[in-house]
Specification:
Elements lengths: L1 H44 L21 H7 L7 H32 L5 H10 L9 H11 L6 H8 L4 H12 L4 H8 L4 H12 L1 H17 L2 H6 L8 H7 L9 H21 L1 H9 L6
Helix pairs in contact: 2-13, 3-6, 3-7, 3-10, 8-9, 10-14
């Protein structure tokens, strides 16, 4: 009797756990569907006729014809979306590469070296994180105007060359602080200088943090709208964010299916890049150097 009652209790416990897991997965599945529904609707709308887009909430496209993608790719006037994609990559790739290199060097200096006014400079850098970006729009515009950088990509690339993002510096500093200094000392004994220690020893260990910095900067720069709107005035130099907005201003009736088609294509590069570096991205966000 005792064995049968014990088995019965274990069976009831398993059943309760199974029901609890089933309810949890069902809730998470429904929540995920609600969150991803707008994206699925946009993809489906890119295949629908313009007049039927807002008359249905279906996420099943009526057909898989690429007509709207072909027409949408023709762009605006004499400029196709080939130009706008090229412009966007011309901004995003250099700025991402430069921000990784420059922030790595600055963070290495803050984390591993002692120099005059180090604490003051680090505090001033951290204080800029509290500064709303809207406050510096006018001073930056006037400064770039004096430099003759307006209607060029220099306002996006040059600040990246000089570690123009305090958040990334702080993130890398925290990662460096989690790496034991004994590794630096061992490298020094083997004859490595400071730069060689960074390149040979610390950079491989910082790969998760560097990937997360690159992903953040790539996505933020790719999606940027306000800065390109302020600094770029020539249509031939527009990135995707401005090009998509411009297609809404050309006539009284917007070709929503073509706009959605180009929107789907515009989100593919950051999404694919995120999934490609997801493993390192999660490690860079959730950990801080070596453990143990």
């Amino acid at each position: 009797m005792e064995r049968s009652s014990t088995l019965a209790r274990k069976t009831q416990h398993k059943v309760k756990n199974g029901l609890r897991l089933a309810v949890t997965y069902l809730f998470l599945g429904l929540l995920g569907l609600v969150m991803v529904y707008p994206l699925l609707w946009m993809v489906a709308s890119s295949f629908k006729e313009n007049k039927g887009i807002f008359n249905s909430i279906s996420i099943i496209p009526p057909s898989l014809s690429l007509e709207h993608y072909i027409e949408g790719w023709k762009g605006v006037g004499e400029y196709t979306f080939t130009t706008f994609f090229t412009n966007t990559f011309s901004i995003v790739i250099p700025s991402t590469v430069f921000i990784i290199v420059s922030c790595l060097l600055v963070a290495y200096g803050f984390a591993r070296f002692e120099f005059p006014m180090k604490k003051f400079l680090f505090t001033a850098m951290m204080a800029t994180l509290m500064l709303p970006s809207a406050v510096i729009i006018i001073p930056r515009y006037m400064l770039f105007k004096q430099f003759g950088w307006l209607d060029t990509y220099l306002p996006f690339i040059v600040p990246a060359m000089f570690a123009g993002n305090s958040f990334f510096i702080f993130q890398l500093v925290q990662f460096f602080r989690g790496i034991p200094r004994e590794l630096d000392e061992a490298a020094s004994i083997d004859g490595c200088g400071s730069f060689r220690t960074l390149v040979r020893i610390l950079m491989p260990l910082c790969k998760p943090a560097l990937v997360s910095v690159g992903l953040f900067n790539f996505i933020w720069t790719w999606n940027a709208f306000m800065d390109p709107l302020i600094y770029i005035s020539s249509v031939k130099k527009y990135p995707l964010s401005l090009a998509l907005r411009m297609t809404l201003d050309l006539g009284s009736a917007a070709a929503w299916n073509e706009i959605f088609a180009m929107s789907v294509l515009s989100i593919l590069p950051p999404v694919l890049l995120f999934f490609a570096g997801q493993k390192y991205f999660i490690q860079g966000i959730s950990t801080s150097g070596l453990k143990g």
